[in-house]
Write a structure and sequence with these properties.
Layout: E1 3-13, E2 19-29, E3 33-37, H1 44-51, E4 58-63, E5 66-67, H2 73-79, E6 80-83, H3 96-106, H4 111-124, H5 140-152, E7 158-162, H6 170-185, E8 189-193, H7 197-203, E9 206-210, E10 216-221, H8 222-226, H9 229-234, H10 242-260
Parallel strand pairs: 3-8, 3-9, 6-7, 7-8
Antiparallel strand pairs: 1-2, 1-4, 4-5, 9-10
Helix pairs in contact: 3-4, 3-5, 4-5, 7-10
């Protein structure tokens, strides 16, 4: 299968010399959902900024067969979208429809295309009829869904999602997970940063673990990684209650595994 993302020997230092990414190597197949987990400060969000070309480290990044460089940046940003952790970073127009249509408008689409793509994106996130609403007045869960619609309106092949369920109550979280199921079924490539172990179990094909050394230390299918208690404990991803962790993993698999995992 073709690879949607290839990261080779990526390093990044902040201007003050602090190392943020060190020897990062991994790839993501087209249509795959790769979930990245790691403690705070391990470089996960910085990785996303590098993948989008917002930050520029040393190393090589390929997106959908194109090398990430200035020459290819515009084309890559047509193929890949980033959904920020804080939806207020993504919503800055007067109304929801203004926000959702902003991307297609800037891509130079004609008016009919823009309206159709924006309305389709709102339907996909369960927000049809919200177009005239003021983005600032939405609930946090609605803002999260509107933020992903602003990216989906451009029909990207690859989506980067930074902590998509953080701050959401269980019902809003379930709605968001259902959106991710739909995107998976459409063949989108998803790269998701999260602390949410249950979200990881629900959507991941593979899981990449980032360590405090600012680099990946393990990659494997979701069961292999999430059942490795010692790996998770070493990387500050679980509490020191192994019995309870195992119970929670098995309970979740029993309740959900046969429904969502294929």
């Amino acid at each position: 299968m073709a690879r949607a993302i290839i990261v080779s020997n990526l390093n990044y230092c902040y201007p003050d010399g602090t190392m943020a990414l060190k020897d990062v190597n991994f790839d993501v197949e087209e249509g795959e959902t790769l979930v990245i987990i790691g403690a705070n400060g391990t470089g996960k969000s910085t990785l996303f900024m590098n993948l989008m070309g917002i930050l520029e480290g040393d190393g090589r990044i390929e997106i959908m067969g194109l090398t990430l460089d200035k020459k290819n940046m515009k084309e890559i940003r047509r193929k890949m979208g980033l959904v920020f952790q804080n939806p207020d970073d993504q919503l800055f127009c007067p109304t929801v429809m203004d926000d959702v249509s902003f991307g297609p408008l800037n891509l130079g689409w004609d008016n009919n295309q823009i309206i159709a793509a924006s309305e389709e994106a709102l339907v996909l996130v369960g927000m049809e009829g919200y177009g005239s609403r003021i983005s600032h007045h939405l609930s946090f869960g609605e803002k999260k869904r509107a933020a992903i619609a602003t990216v989906l309106s451009m029909n990207p092949k690859v989506l980067l999602l930074d902590e998509p369920t953080s701050g959401l109550d269980p019902r809003s979280s379930s709605k968001f997970i259902n959106i991710l199921y739909t995107l998976k079924s459409q063949g989108k490539t998803l790269l998701v940063v999260t602390h949410d172990i249950f979200l990881t179990q629900e959507i991941a094909d593979r899981v990449l673990v980032f360590s405090e050394e600012k680099r990946p230390v393990a990659i494997g299918n979701y069961k292999e990684i999430l059942n490795n208690y010692d790996l998770l404990l070493k990387n500050n991803l679980v509490h020191q209650h192994r019995h309870r962790h195992d119970e929670m993993v098995h309970e979740h698999e029993h309740r959900h595994g046969h429904i969502h995992k294929h």
